[in-house]
Amino acid sequence: MAEADPSFADSVFSARGPFAAIADADVAALFAPLLAARGLVLAVSGGPDSLALLLLAARWREVAGRASFPAMTVATVDHALRASAADEAHMVAHLACAMGLPARVLVWRGEKPARGIQEAARAARYGLLAQAAREAGASHIVTAHHADDQAETVLMRLAAGSGIGGLAAMRPCRALDEATVGEGGPLVLARPLLGLTRARLDAIVREAGIQAVDDPANRDPRFTRARLRALAPEREALGLTTARLALLAARCARADAALAAVAVQRYAALARHEGDRLTIGADLWREPDEIVLRCVALGVEAVAGGGTNAPLRLERLERLVEALRDATKEGNMLRRTLHHAVVRIARSGELDIRREPERRRGVETGSRKA
C-alpha cells in the first residue's frame, strides 16, 4: 500500500465539498448500481478521466451515508513504457491515500511486444486489475470510460463491420471473460461514467485543482482511437456527435438484448442435449435469419464450453449458417467445424453439434472450416 503524502492535502481538500460541475444527487445516481458490490477496485491511471472517477467515487462515499458501503481500493498500473510512468503511478497512489482510499501500484513486468503494444498493454492491465480485485475480495473493477470513449468505440466497430451487438459498444456492466479473470471466479467490469462527456470530467478535475497526467499515446496517430479523437470537429460537423453516437449504442444494446432473449427462448424449445451431443430441430430454419444465427451460436458455445477464450467471430458464423441453409434447401448433408465444434446438418435440416476431438484441432480432416 502507498503512504499518504501531506503535500496533496490542499488539492484534495477542494474535492471534499460538492462539485459545481455535477450535483451530489447525480453523483449518487452514477454509482447507485454498485452499492451492492462486494468491493470495488477503481482503475486510476492519472489521466483526467480516471482522476475524475477517483474524485467522484470519493464524493459518492461521503454523500451515500451507508454503513454497508462497499470497500474501495484504488489500483494504478505502471506499464513501464515511459520513463515517467512510475512517478505518475505513485502520484495517483499518494493522492488516493490522501483522500482516505487504500491504493496499490501494479507493475507490468517482463518484455514488451514490438507490435500490438496497446492490445498487449490492455490485456496486461486487466489481468493485473483482476488479480488486485481477487486479493482485495472485490467483485467489481471500475473504469472511467465515458461518452466520448463510447462514441469512438461505435465508430471503430462501424468501420470493422460489426453487427448490432458490436455497435452496442461498451455496456455499463459486463462480466469479464475467463482469460482475464483466471481461476479466481467471476468479476464484473463496471463503467459508471458512460453518460458523462470528457469535457465534464475535465471540469471536475480542474475544479479539484489537481494536475492530470498527460499521456502522449492519447494523441499518437498510429492508434485508431487517437486519429478518431483528432477528427472530432469534422465528425461533429457532419452530425456524428458524441451524443448521437452514444444514443445509437444505447438503441443497439436495447435491440440486442431483445433479440438475445428471443433467441434463448427459441433455442430452449428447439435444442436437445443428449450426453456430448446437441441437436437443434429442423424448425430452426423457419426462424428469421438473426434468430437462426444466434441459436446456432448458442449451440456451438454450449458444446465448445471452455475450449477457447476467443470470441465467436460473426463473419465465420454467418458463413457457416449460409452454407447450412443452402444445404437444407438442396436436401444435402454437410459437415463443418467452428469454434472447436463440429456441426453436421442432416437432409431433414436437423443440426447435430458435437465438440471437436482434441486430436483434430488445428488439423484439416476433410471437413471445411467455417
TrEMBL record:
Top-level class of the enzyme under EC nomenclature: ligase
UniProt domain comment: The N-terminal region contains the highly conserved SGGXDS motif, predicted to be a P-loop motif involved in ATP binding.
Lineage, broadest ranks: Bacteria, Pseudomonadati, Pseudomonadota, Alphaproteobacteria, Hyphomicrobiales
Subcellular location as annotated: Cytoplasm
Gene Ontology MF annotations: tRNA(Ile)-lysidine synthase activity
Biological source species: Pseudochelatococcus lubricantis
Gene symbol of the encoding locus: tilS
InterPro entries per UniProt: Rossmann-like_a/b/a_fold, TilS/TtcA_N, tRNA_Ile_lys_synt, tRNA_Ile_lys_synt_N
Keywords: ATP-binding, Cytoplasm, Ligase, Nucleotide-binding, tRNA processing
Family, as annotated: Belongs to the tRNA(Ile)-lysidine synthase family.
Pfam family, any one: ATP_bind_3
Entry's EC annotation: 6.3.4.19
Residue ranges annotated for the tRNA(Ile)-lysidine/2-thiocytidine synthase N-terminal domain, each copy included: 40-230
Name under which the protein is recorded: tRNA(Ile)-lysidine synthase
